[in-house]
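Now for our target.
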Amino acid sequence: MKNKRIFWIAGENSGDLHASIVLNELNKRYSNIENFGIGGEKMKSLGFRAIFPFERFSVMGFVEVIQHLAFFIGVEKQIKKTLKKNPPDLVVLVDYPGLNMRIAKLAKSFNIPVLYFIVPQFWAWKYKRIFKLQKYTDHIAYILPFEKKHFNKHNINASYVGHPISEEISIKLSKEEFADKNDLDLNKKWLGFLPGSRNAELKNMLPQFIDSIEMFDPDKYEFMISQATSVSIKLFQKILNRTSKNIKIVKDSNYEMMKHCDFLTVTSGTATIETAFLGTPFIIVYKTSNISYQIGKRFVKIDKIGLPNIVIEKDIVPELIQEDVNGKNIHTTISEILSNEEKYKQISEELKALHDILGSKTTSTEVTDIIGNMINE
């Protein structure tokens, strides 16, 4: 096969991670593919050439996107110039619908094949996006099994490729090793908090998490908060300085934290499905700007926000949304579940259904097969 060029867009941490497992498999099979575009540190570590600063893309919410509109307009212009002047053999779009849906249309206008890996959640809101996916993509690699019925209904060329978390989750430390690394007391209950990977999420979630931690007895509990590499260290520390409690900051062993904690509080997003996959009982929380929430509420067609609850089609994990997200409610919800052994075990058992639903496909292999077929046609 002659040299090929693939243009990728993975605009946030989860997309960077999902794309990286595919890049890793691609590198094993092919030595003559140039991968470039928008991606993060994990993709760059595999030889990916990033043409924009990755941290600038970590924006969500209507108001937040508008505030960064000039940047995104500039990015789109640059991508258009790149695709037109020196068109790649394939465009691979990973999640990130705000930008990716527009780039799909752009790529098709230049007759560049488009693979969409992890599509927008059109079934939750903006269902009309499925018609754009039908029109502007050549193939869809989807990761949620129930999406199949929608693609079949509209005769869209799509393949279920399994969920990437089965490859991405790796537990390298035992509970004892993790405790030793982070100076944790094995005799206490461990509470973990995941505030998200964007600065806006950090501003909205971390103060509420700290408020809830203040209500727990430090003689009985250990407290951990994950710190994503994509958030501002200065902002993280500024919010953390509000408390004098002994809180352990976890930067690189997130999966061990998710696995070994007794209970977790998780900001809605990819981390919720990862936590569910590991089986640790948790609650899902989400809070955005009031304007973004009011706008979003008018469009959302489902009554759940947590992916585990949506995929399993059952209210297994409690959800706290918007005004309900405060220290008192988080503390109360955690305390009620931890004090009810039967409820605690029930959540853990019901989360096991996720393994069966997601199946046993290896995502990196499946997506690489599709890419190989598309660039060799």
